[in-house]
# Entry
Amino acid sequence: YLIQQGIHLLRYQGRPFDLRVLTQRSPSGQWVSTGIIGRVAAKNKIITNHHSGGTVEHYKPLMLEHMTAEEAENIRRELHVLGVNVAGQL
# Structure
C-alpha cells in the first residue's frame, strides 16, 4: 500500500499529471534510472492511473508547458539522480 499526502499537481492541457521514474539494476548490479514518463488524468478526473482512464505522455511536452527547455532538462537530470538515490535507500 502507498499512503501519501495530497499535493497540487501541474496540469497538461487542463488535466493533472504526475511523473514516474523507472529505476532498475544494471547487469553490473548498479541502480540506473532508465526512463521518465508522465501519467495524465482523464478529463474531469484527478487520478492518473490507467484503470481510471489516465494516459501515458512523454516527459518533455508535459514540462514545456511550465518551464523552459533548459529548466526541464535540469529537472530531468535531477529526477534520474533521485531515482537512483531512492532505490539505494529502499
In short: The chain has a mean pLDDT of 94. The chain has two helices and four strands. Strands lie at 11-12, 15-25, 31-40, 55-58. The helical segments are 59-64, 69-89.
